[in-house]
Amino acid sequence: MTSAPLLAHKDPEAVFAWRPDGPVSVGEYLADAAALAGQLPATGYLLNLCHDRYRFAVGFAAGLLRGMTSLQPSSQSAETLRRLQADYPGLVCLCDGDTETLDLPCLDFPDLAVPRGEFLQGAGNRKNEPKTEFSAPQIPADHVAAILFTSGSTGLPQAQPKTWKKLVQNGRAEAIALGLDRQPHAIVGTVPVQHSYGFESTFLLALHGGGAFWAGKPFFPQDIATALDAVPQPRLLVTTPFHLSTLLAAGLDLPPVDLLLSATAPLSTTLAAEAEARTGAPLLEIYGSTESGQLASRRTTDGPVWTLLPGVRLETEDDRTIACGNHVEGRVALSDLIELLPEHRFLLHGRHADLINIAGKRTSLAYLNHQLGAVPGVIDGTFFLPDEAGPDGITRLTAFVVAPGLSARQVTVALRERIDAIFLPRPLVLVDELPRNSTGKLPRGELQALYAEKVSHG
Amino acid sequence: MSEAFTPEAVEALLPEVAALIISALNLDMAPGEIEADAPLFGDGLGLDSIDVLEIALVISKQYGFQLKSDNEDNIRIFSSLRALTAHIASQRTK
């Protein structure tokens, strides 16, 4: 394979996206992408910050047509933007609406004003002939289409390059695993399109599963109900355990849903069963990571066993589990404890202690501690994740900080420049010293005791 | 919709909504410490989108209406305690 099509749709008049003012066809999407491509630089890096899922999709395709690479950091903090600017000279931001981009060169998403209904290279002249010869633009298979970022064990963000071929294979494999290749769904996602789960399960899944997506990112439960109502059945809701539990707790009458998808954090069987009972739709969970892409799925109410996506393999190497095959880039060591079972199945037994996952955003304690230590005036400090309150709740981080002369609020303001808001400590506790042992380490038991004394009063 | 509301009615409702936020988020502060006109996000109270969903849930239970915005990045009613309280006063059904 030397090239792969931009999208899997065969009919230029098929719906590609649903917007509040109505559907956008595949042909209109391609025309919008071609028009935007004319305004982008040839080659280089595109930081696509569009909130609107459709505009993101146009920007992504336009970048591909120009030979650009889409940068998709896990946060948009000032520190992250500065690092990207340093590491990827000449990057261009694409924005819609209010977005903080410092002094980076920024292109506001233009009013493309492509005349609807007349376009389209490859579709033929539709006045004279029927739509027979439609063919989507071809993208070089080995082009690095996107770079997603994770926090590595060193504490610094690590780039995860994805070639176009692998992204296409990922979208196809997920479509097959969910059955969307046989029955395309209209996809409504509560997750951002730039992060790996939303990128794969809303954008790539529609692009290479042949479906359509809702352009918005519904937030409040009522918004989710409204978005579902705005697209035709069958409908797929792509969400997280937290959004799902909030949605069910709101007690709304939901429009019919045909399939539910959850990822980013463990989902309790109780919540899964309630979600299925309330909607009548099966709930599937996706397992994967930004490094490996999506690896497996399961129906939570069927039990704990995961089934690998088509073509994906897991292998044991020393004490680690390695993912490879199909859309996995190379051989990716997983940070989870995994028990392999026959017939492409496995059990998941927990995560590495250094990794933090809050509401689907991932980082490592090492990274957070590195950022905390870099705040001027902080002499010593550590983040601490208390034992979880409940399986579907959100547990917040605490930080213990030695910073004579600074207030907790001053340290928090400085931290906000450096880390995603979801990881900001709540609370940040100033202490005289940290309970380091003779080797300088911080035993978890000591931190738990400090937490009990200063925070939980227990 | 509910009865008409006045700035005085909003003012009177502020402590109740402040207490609701503090209890929903387990914040370690007194209701009077939330400044009525300071931003709830960013440099003010530092709330994020997860907090907003938690608060939205208790508001819907307490005051009998659903919040709408269609975009977590555009939640003007959460710009300050006073803005949120005024929205509640105008929308509450109980």
From TrEMBL, chain B:
The species is Dechloromonas aromatica (strain RCB)
Q: Which Pfam families match?
A: PP-binding (PF00550)
Carrier domain boundaries: 11-92
Output the InterPro entries linked to this UniProt entry: ACP-like_sf, PP-bd_ACP
Superkingdom per UniProt: Bacteria
* Taxonomy of the source species: Bacteria, Pseudomonadati, Pseudomonadota, Betaproteobacteria, Rhodocyclales
Which PROSITE patterns does the UniProt entry name for this protein? CARRIER
Question: Entry's Gene3D superfamilies?
Answer: ACP-like
Query: What is the protein's name according to its record?
Result: Acyl carrier protein
